[in-house]
UniProtKB/TrEMBL annotation:
GO terms for biological process: regulation of DNA-templated transcription; RNA methylation. One of its GO terms (molecular function) is RNA binding. This is SUN protein. It comes from Tepidicaulis marinus. The lineage of its organism: Bacteria, Pseudomonadati, Pseudomonadota, Alphaproteobacteria, Hyphomicrobiales. The keyword Methyltransferase applies. Gene3D superfamilies: NusB-like (1.10.940.10), Vaccinia Virus protein VP39 (3.40.50.150). Belongs to the class I-like SAM-binding methyltransferase superfamily. RsmB/NOP family.
Amino acid sequence: MTDKPGKKKQKPPAPVTSRQTSGVPARVAAHELIARVLFDQISLDEALLACEPMLRPLETRDRAFARAIAATSLRRLGQIEALLAGFLEKPLPERAKRAGIILIAAAAELLFLGVKPHAAVNAAVGAAALDHKTRPLKNLVNAIARRIDREGKEIVEAQDAEKLNTPAWAWESWQRAYGEETARAIASAHLKEPPLDFSVKEDAKGWAARLEGTVLPTGSVRLAKTASVEKLPGFQEGGWWVQDAAAALPAKMLGDVKGKDVLDLCAAPGGKTAQLAAAGARVTALDKSSSRLARIRENLKRLSLEAELISADALRWKPERSFPLILLDAPCSATGTARRHPDVLHLKSAGDIAKLADLQFRLLSKALGFLAPGGTLIYCTCSLEEAEGPAQIEKLLRNRKDIARLPLTAAEIGEDADALAPLITAEGDLRTLPAQFESLGGLDGFYAARLKKLA
Ligand SMILES: C[S@@+](CC[C@H](N)C(=O)[O-])C[C@H]1O[C@@H](n2cnc3c(N)ncnc32)[C@H](O)[C@@H]1O
């Protein structure tokens, strides 16, 4: 069911009409989202945008439900596929592979979202009846969905959830980098919905009180429950922005940036640009995507912050001056964000990691060319893969005698140094993992190293 026949353009799906059975439209939208990710190989965020015409007519609650079904289906895909393989006597015909999606979503509802059996089963059958390709399989969908309800719980409880829901290449990569126990802990953290984190312009304690959240040892504010961000206090007035607590750490590694020139490379959508601007830096933010750069502009406007924005490919850009401080948040596999983006692990492969590592090294070498002698550069990625993190720095330091690593201390990234010490490696780099801060709700996986250009 996870065949990857390559990207192809599709017409936007038609809105689901009110003639259809209640509860079915949200499911049909969920099926479309899952199909877009698994068949068209686009991210869930891109699928949500592409399916906007289908989602817009739904009630807010049903839109959230469609997203939850899709996200849970992707989070638990390995377990669900193993379960279905045991129930289906033969693979579904190619022309009716959408029936497989309907069953995946039904399993997510029945086994992981606690939806009432009759509602999940009836909606699955109702959705199958709507499409001429799946209609002939309506009875099969009914029979399998009922069987998932009767037998599924016991089967999934006995499964190795961590291993089944992690592609083999990722499991091997994490096991090599962190050992079996930590690889399993990372995979386990990916099974949970993450909390919502905010970076604040100032007064973290005050915002935590207003938002009914807590302040993490890193200084970020965390909300335990998911919420509609735009409706939260402080959104309109621009008091904070959404940013995972781990993603907020690399910018802090530049130290006090007040009044200093900082080049933020690969800056969009601007989480780190906002941090640097809020800390008083004169920020030049560069990104190659003009549409993503527009999002920085919007975000900065809402936050009443300023930065110079440059739309350019960092590999070709020729600045007129050098910079004393640079932050390079290189494009990466984003496996460190799999908690928030459960599609990531299904869309990436070991081959992608190798290609991205090559691009990251070229960007890092280029960025060092923009750095003034004596200047500091932070290299970071939201990846769990060694190849996209420490391996880049080791390779660089082997080849460049004019560059040195400036080791980080826990006290530099937050007030509670004891709590933060496990996030610093023996070499003095930052390495966060989804299983860290477990009792507080986890962290995204991030890697960052601080480098100095010797004068
Ligand atoms: C990980 S995201 C950056 C996230 C951002 N720093 C933040 O904190 O919100 C990587 C960004 O790199 C940009 N990018 C990729 N290749 C680039 C290149 N050659 N030159 C400039 N930007 C590039 C992408 O458009 C994307 O916005």
